[in-house]
Amino acid sequence: MSPPKQFSDTIREWAEVFMHRSMRDFKRFMNDSGLSFTQVNLLMRLYHGGKIGVSELGGHLGITNAAASQAIDRLVKDGLIERSEDPQDRRAKRLTLTEEGHALIARGIETRGQWIAGLTEAFTPEQQAMIVSALTLLTEAARKTDE
Amino acid sequence: MSPPKQFSDTIREWAEVFMHRSMRDFKRFMNDSGLSFTQVNLLMRLYHGGKIGVSELGGHLGITNAAASQAIDRLVKDGLIERSEDPQDRRAKRLTLTEEGHALIARGIETRGQWIAGLTEAFTPEQQAMIVSALTLLTEAARKTDE
DNA sequence: TTAATTAGTTAAGAGCGCTTATCTATAATC
DNA sequence: GATTATAGATAAGCGCTCTTAACTAATTAA
């Protein structure tokens, strides 16, 4: 097999397996936490950081600011988000994860991490080191494209 | 930093960045295709292969057979799934992706693959080779745990 | 200071996706 | 052949999530 073909095949297979797995993980997380896809998405965005308002958050999620406001409402009631006035601009709201909300997402990420860690257990230390190097490169590159 | 700490940190960071990115990808795919999370999940399961019935499919998705039946109904109407009688057991249904359904999911996987491929472009050939090796190992290991 | 803009909320209504309960049809068991 | 079990579809109903439209309040521009 020629090198470029091997390269794209590898990536495609990886994408297939991991997309499939990711769906299962998300579904499980949604069921366990009782949250919708949009809600998890929203919490994730807040976890990822950066000041963000209601409308902008809705924009990222591809929904109207009305829908975002309602979704946030429910998450505030659930105690996962805190919504307070922005002292700089009293029209705007500051959205932050509560301790509980932060812990919830952290747990989700941790669970996913454990799965990967479990995958690598059977490998030799050399292989594990290689995987760590590769994932480090990919993570850095992904962070850069995150704008 | 001690080696084991570095290992778990690498995995956790990777999980964080890629979970975040995966959510965005799924959301975009859902919006573009006009499908719900459950529907994409369902199509993905069929794409992944293996004979599977309505109830079992629902079980995998964590929903009742009634819900699965309804979801399938909509996908059949959309022309993404074919539902035919199983000649072996006429109570059961054979569920298969139509050409259109298959192409839709393949396109989603392809898009994701392109993103990864784009990430690696900036790397040296040696780094790319390492990433390919690492992903190959991870893909194989993940396939094994997929039962 | 008045007018226009911006951030967010609220209200009404539509549709989706889920549940339980009921139903039909086929298959397996006695 | 009669009973029981299984696969799936259908119905009624509930709650969630989205939309558009109208609203309040704060900020910016004229």
N- to C-terminal distance of chain A: 36 Å
Main sheet specs of chain A: 2 strands, antiparallel
The amount of helix of chain A comes to over 70%
Q: Name the shape of chain A in a single word.
A: elongated
Fourth-level CATH superfamily of the domain at 17-113 in chain A: Winged helix-like DNA-binding domain superfamily/Winged helix DNA-binding domain
- The CATH topology of the domain at 17-113 in chain A is Arc Repressor Mutant, subunit A
- Report the sheet-strand fraction of chain A: 5-15%
Overall structural class of chain A, as computed from helix and strand content, comes to: mainly alpha
Q: Give the mean pLDDT of chain A.
A: 89
Rg estimate of chain A, integer Å: 19 Å
- CATH architectural type of the domain at 17-113 in chain A: Orthogonal Bundle
Note the total helix count of chain A: 6
What is the CATH class name of the domain at 17-113 in chain A?
A: Mainly Alpha
Low-confidence stretches of chain A: none
Strand order of the largest sheet of chain A: 1-2
Chain pair forming the biggest interface: A-B, 59 and 59 residues
The oligomeric state of the chains shown is homodimer
Give the beta-strand count of chain A.
2
The sequence of SSEs of chain A as H and E is HHHHEEHH
